Amino acid sequence: MSVGRRTGWFLVAMAVWNFFIWLTFAKNLSEAHADGEDRATGYWVAHTGLIVVNLVLGVVFAVLGSKILRNRSAS
Length: 75
What we know:
By secondary structure, the protein is mostly helical. The chain has helices at residues 5-34, 41-74.
């Protein structure tokens, strides 16, 4: 099955989107914690886990997208 450049660019765009959204959320979450926002520990742990998982997904999308774009340009 051939994967096109369109898919490669889509994956790269998804990676950029993930990094932007989740790093912004991490900044906001960190500021809320520093300001002493009163939340249960589970709240901080769960949201930190979401941030980590989605940043890892962003890396996976970026790697796959760049590989597709490199391979398609060499063809």
